[in-house]
Design a protein that fits this description.
Elements: H1 8-18, E1 31-34, E2 43-47, H2 52-60, E3 65-68, H3 85-95, E4 99-102, H4 105-109, H5 114-121, E5 131-132, E6 138-146, H6 150-159, E7 173-181, E8 198-209, H7 214-224, E9 231-237, E10 249-250, E11 252-261, H8 262-272, E12 280-283, E13 289-299, H9 304-309, E14 314-318, H10 322-330, E15 335-339, H11 341-345, H12 347-360, E16 363-366
Parallel strand pairs: 2-3, 2-16, 3-4, 13-14, 14-15
Antiparallel strand pairs: 1-4, 5-10, 6-8, 6-9, 7-8, 11-13, 12-15
Helix pairs in contact: 1-12, 2-3, 5-12, 6-7
Length: about 375
C-alpha cells in the first residue's frame, strides 16, 4: 500500500488471495468490472447482486468499491449503453467514482467462502467440499536443499499453499543425502568454487500441491532456496488424496452435533437465513432423522448426485425444480431443503466485509437490500404430511 492508503489494486490483491480466480468455473466471469486500479479506496459496500438499488445504496454510503457476488456481465454483451438496465447501473457507478468487482464461483469454492459462511450461519462446522476443485490430480514436488535451509524452504512452500492432504496441513517427507556438482564458468555458486567439484550435505524434501499452485510454489522454492539454480522435480500424481476439510470446491458436507428431524432442520434454516417470500421448503418425510447435511449456496441441483454419493441425509440448496426433485427422491434421495438463492448466499457478504476491514483497513459494510426477485406470495400454509 502506498502512503498507508489502500488502492483498488491492493483491495483486488487481497480479494484474489482470499478468493483465487483460478477456482472459478470455466464459464464464469469474475474480477474487476469497472474502476481504476490506481484509485484510493476507503469505503466498500458488499452485496449479493449489482442492481440499480444496490448501486444507489453504495453511492449513498460514499463507497469507492461495490463488491458483489453475482457478475453483472456474465453473458456476452455488445453494449453498456446508459439506456439499458445494466448499462445505466454501470454508468451510475462510474460517474460516482465507485468501482465494481465480482467474486462468484471462486468465492463459492474458496476456504473460507460462500459455503463456509452458509454452514456457520446454521451453526455447522464446514466439512469437505461436495465437489472438490479439479479432478483429484496433485503435483508431487521433490526439492533438494542444504540441511540448514530445509525449514525455511518448507515454511515458504507451505505459505504458498503446498503440503495439504485430506485435512492435514504442512505435510512433507525428508531424507538426508549428498549433493554433488561442479560450478561452471559464469555461475555464482552459493557454495563451492567455480571449476571445482563440490559435495554438500543436502536434504531431499517432498510435498504435494494442487496443479493450479504450480507457479506460486515454484516462486516460493526459488525465493527460499540458497542455490542459484535450485534442483527440483514436479511429478503429476493422478491418484491424489480424497477431499478433506481444508480442500477447496463447491458445496460442503457437515455433521449435526445432535440429530434432528427434517421438519426441525427446515425450521432451523428458516430461522437463521434472512427472511424472503420464497421462504424455506423441504421434500421428504418431515419426521425422518438427519445427521449428515450437504449444502450448496445458490443454485445447486448439479450437485444432487454428489450429495447422494456423500451419504447425506439432507441436501440444502436453492432453485430446485419440480421434476428434478421428484425424480431425485424416487431415485433414493437424499431429502431436500430448498431456500431462496439470495438468502443462501447473503451470509458471505459479512465474511467478505470483515476480510476487507481487517486486512485492507477500509470501512466495509453489507448492503441489506433484499435482491431476491419475488415480491408477493399467496396460497401458503400447506403443512407437511
Amino acid at each position: 500500500m502506498s502512503s498507508g492508503r489502500p488502492t483498488l489494486a491492493d483491495g483486488i490483491d487481497l480479494l484474489e488471495r482470499a478468493y483465487p480466480p483460478r477456482l472459478a468455473e470455466s464459464w464464469d466471469r469474475v474480477g474487476l468490472v469497472a474502476g481504476d486500479p490506481a484509485a484510493v479506496i476507503g469505503t466498500v459496500v458488499v452485496a449479493v447482486d449489482a442492481t440499480a438499488a444496490g448501486a444507489d445504496h453504495a453511492l449513498g454510503a460514499g463507497a469507492d468499491l461495490l463488491l458483489v457476488h453475482h457478475p453483472p456481465l456474465l453473458k456476452a454483451v455488445h453494449s453498456v449503453a446508459a439506456d439499458t438496465p445494466k448499462g445505466r447501473m454501470l454508468h451510475r457507478l462510474i460517474e460516482g467514482g465507485c468501482a465494481l468487482y465480482s467474486a462468484h464461483t471462486n468465492a463459492d469454492a474458496a476456504r473460507p467462502g460462500v459455503n463456509d459462511a452458509l454452514a456457520e450461519t446454521l451453526g455447522l462446522t464446514p466439512g469437505p467440499p461436495l465437489s472438490p476443485t479439479g479432478d483429484g490430480t496433485v503435483d508431487r514436488w521433490v526439492v533438494t536443499v542444504p540441511h540448514d535451509d530445509v525449514e525455511d524452504l518448507l515454511h515458504a512452500v507451505f505459505a504458498a499453499g503446498a503440503g495439504r492432504m485430506s485435512g492435514y496441513t504442512e505435510c512433507s517427507f525428508s531424507v538426508p543425502g549428498t549433493g554433488r556438482f561442479r560450478p561452471g564458468d559464469g555461475t555464482d555458486p552459493a557454495l563451492g568454487t567455480v571449476g571445482e567439484p563440490e559435495s554438500v550435505s543436502e536434504t531431499r524434501g517432498e510435498f504435494v500441491a494442487p496443479p493450479g499452485l504450480r507457479s506460486a510454489v515454484r516462486r516460493a522454492v526459488t525465493a527460499a532456496h540458497p542455490y542459484e539454480v535450485p534442483a527440483m522435480d514436479v511429478l503429476v500424481n493422478h491418484a491424489g488424496p480424497g477431499p478433506g476439510p481444508e480442500d477447496t470446491g463447491l458445496g460442503r458436507i457437515c455433521e449435526l452435533e445432535h440429530p434432528m428431524t427434517l421438519a426441525e432442520f427446515t425450521e432451523l434454516v428458516g430461522s437463521r437465513l434472512p427472511e424472503t417470500l420464497w421462504g424455506v421448503r423441504a421434500a421428504g418425510d418431515p419426521q425422518a432423522e438427519i445427521r449428515r447435511v450437504a449444502l450448496c449456496g445458490g443454485s445447486g441441483d448439479s450437485l444432487l448426485g454428489a450429495a447422494r454419493a456423500a451419504g447425506a441425509d439432507v441436501y440444502l440448496t436453492g432453485d430446485l425444480r419440480h421434476h428434478v426433485v421428484d425424480e431425485h427422491l424416487r431415485g433414493g434421495g437424499p431429502m431436500l431443503v430448498d431456500a431462496a438463492h439470495w438468502a443462501l448466499e447473503f451470509p458471505w457478504c459479512a465474511q467478505a466485509a470483515a476480510l476487507l476491514e481487517e486486512q485492507a483497513g477500509v470501512t466495509a459494510t453489507v448492503c441489506a437490500l433484499r435482491t431476491d426477485p419475488w415480491t408477493a406470495a399467496s396460497g401458503g400454509g400447506v403443512r407437511g404430511r
